[in-house]
């Protein structure tokens, strides 16, 4: 699609629509001359270009990429109107779009009845799930794995809830024996399972854990902020279907369309299996008889104002690339194939060593030559990151992640454990373009690790 054409078309269409209303004069206080605008714009553009090239397949650092052009055009056209999805009066059209995309997300996870809404982030979405958990299990705490997102620790503190970090195994997945030990105390009311940890993209063993839910009368919340859309590929491309099939029997789930759903930032979501939890949000006099459909979105959300444009962009994107295997799934499948290929090339490499097989699309590795000690690995990885980022002619953008000594030792017992932890390289292959670029990328990583060997 031709982005300049559709942007111009969106602006033009907006002008046509606004001109159907009675004419009025624009206030002079808002007028800015093209000259002044140009001066500020030129400086602004220079500043913007100080960013890293998130769009490029050589950027495999953090979970960052531009939105799909469809989302950009839809967001822009809705933003020109600027509806507020706080209420159906504030966003009469985008309110309906939000309900539709929430239904699509619920169907993706296999939720039947449900209550849900978009949020400004995964953090807000998780906060809402934990808030409802607290309402339903007052006085009982929250357990999450030590590899879960740091937001859970922070949010439970904010909510004044007790929290327990359950150890993760060597692959970064929650250890269920340790979880059961925690549940036996009776002090935990909610367990957070992560499907796609932010570090290595690990999937907690949710299916195996399901029996614990009734045995200990606890809520199960699924944080799939990063990985959630991979549920459409469950059972294909080596993706374990079991945890995804178990989501439908959980109490709440979070997924961030601004991570893998091709959306600009400001788009998270939370879904509850039981629509009656709406009662914990209602801020007015208690409604004794209501159906969730009667409630404004602002009445089932902790946030008040929310951009209708966010719902519009997601709705429009889903019209073109639905959250199904043959829509958005095709994008994710390319990410997954790229990750599998990079993992295979790394496992075969003389210079690089694979840390673990990817559950999703995040590949972790370190240079072999530095592989005799934890401290040596940490230094070499940091040097590779620095050199890759600052090589103007042949750059590659990487990121690091800390691994604790014991977890590392279980996977690589031959490495001398001369430190409490180390840092390894972590590459997020969340752009489908990685698929055709992955061999080139791998060669660049090989060269980078070779040059570390020389200097070190
Ligand atoms: C990114 C992420 C979050 C936080 O979401 P934000 O949208 O960044 O606030 C929470 N949990 C997981 C697993 C994540 O990957």
Automatic annotation (TrEMBL):
Its cofactor is pyridoxal 5'-phosphate. InterPro entries: GrpII_AminoAcid_Decarb, PyrdxlP-dep_de-COase, PyrdxlP-dep_Trfase, PyrdxlP-dep_Trfase_major. Keywords: Aminotransferase, Lyase, Pyridoxal phosphate, Transferase. One of its GO terms (biological process) is carboxylic acid metabolic process. The modification N6-(pyridoxal phosphate)lysine is found at residue 259. It comes from the Bacteria. GO terms for molecular function: aromatic-L-amino-acid decarboxylase activity; pyridoxal phosphate binding; transaminase activity. Belongs to the group II decarboxylase family. This is Aspartate aminotransferase family protein. It comes from Amycolatopsis dendrobii.
